[in-house]
Design brief:
324 residues; alpha/beta
Length: 324
């Protein structure tokens, strides 16, 4: 059935890459500058990081599409976590015939014979092993590595990390005006004229806390809600209802990014709402079989805080955490 409000629902999909970007000019310039020599030879390697929904993947994929379409390959390491899957995905995207049963070493051999391209690894910190990064670096024009967290390079062997000589680019949350510009652009092309007022778009922008993904999801769900009520315009009640579902979607998305240890810590804290760091550490250690170091625990907590799943409400000796 034809939507009463949505002209093109795909414009509100987080995977959609628009023809032009309405913000992040400085980031676009920095990434493009680092990769400027990739079409004619070796270029700089990049480490791009920032919380979810701040445009890391969108901006990077837009630049690759606009300037390096024939010379780049994008791989999502969330869905391709092993070296075998990463190499297989690259080969398939560059036109090789791969059955998937070949040993990893054979796939790497095939990859080494291919023309060199920019290799973009999104959510690279989900790789189960990182030795493959050396092969990717050695046989690429540049390696672009994207992560939600600033400390994710710690998972890489120091010898490999020193060879990469990564340029670091940080994405911080959008300001409200930037989110508004992004949402208004999608509304102009993705919804029927007059379907939502600028005031409501502004309200959605303020509700996002710098995460454009939540805003896009909220608008799409609000449009569906209004459509189910057989209305041609979106109301504030539609936005409120949609916002609840959008935030549940975001929570589900973020929890899916956690490893087993981080999920255990989150569940312990969730049951108690707020806990002293020492007590939380002890409760967590009781639930895992292997020995856990203080350093590992601190790293897990840093990731939970950076993903805005957990809030640090004091510091030092009396540090406490609570569920966001």
């Amino acid at each position: 059935m034809e939507s009463r409000i949505l002209v093109d629902e795909g414009l509100f999909d987080e995977e959609f890459i628009p023809e032009r970007l309405v913000s992040r000019e400085a980031h676009i310039k920095a990434i493009a500058s680092s990769l400027s020599h990739a079409n004619c030879g070796r270029s700089k390697n990049l480490f791009i990081h920032g919380p979810p929904g701040v445009g890391k993947t969108l901006v990077t994929r837009w630049i690759l599409k606009e300037h390096f379409d024939k010379n780049s390959v994008y791989v999502n390491c969330w869905s391709n976590r092993t070296s075998h899957k990463v190499i297989r995905d690259i080969l398939l995207k560059t036109g090789s015939i791969v059955h998937g049963k070949e040993p990893t070493s054979e796939l790497v051999g095939m990859f080494e014979t291919k023309p060199k391209k920019i290799i973009c690894l999104d959510e690279f910190d989900h790789l189960e092993e990182t030795d493959i990064l050396y092969d990717l670096w050695k046989n690429s024009r540049a390696l672009v590595m994207i992560s939600n967290t600033s400390y994710s390079l710690a998972v890489i062997d120091g010898r490999i990390r020193s060879r990469l000589l990564l340029d670091e680019i940080e994405f911080k949350p959008y300001c409200t005006d930037e989110v508004f510009d992004i949402l208004r652009e999608r509304v102009d092309y993705g919804m029927r004229p007059g379907a939502i007022s600028e005031d409501l778009v502004s309200i959605v922008s303020r509700m996002c806390n710098g995460d454009a993904r939540i805003g896009l999801q909220t608008l799409r769900l609000a449009a569906r809600e209004a459509g189910m009520q057989e209305r041609d315009t979106i109301t504030i009640e539609d936005v409120k209802t949609a916002s609840k579902f959008a935030r549940k979607y975001r929570l589900s998305y973020l929890l899916g990014k956690l490893n087993e240890h981080q999920r255990i810590i989150y569940e312990v804290l969730k049951r108690n709402r707020s806990m002293d760091s020492g007590r939380l550490f002890e409760e967590y250690r009781k639930k895992v079989k292997e020995t856990v170091t203080d350093r590992s625990y601190r790293n897990y907590m840093e990731r939970l805080v950076e993903l805005d799943l957990v809030r640090e409400i004091s510091s030092g000796r009396w540090k406490k955490y609570e569920i966001v």
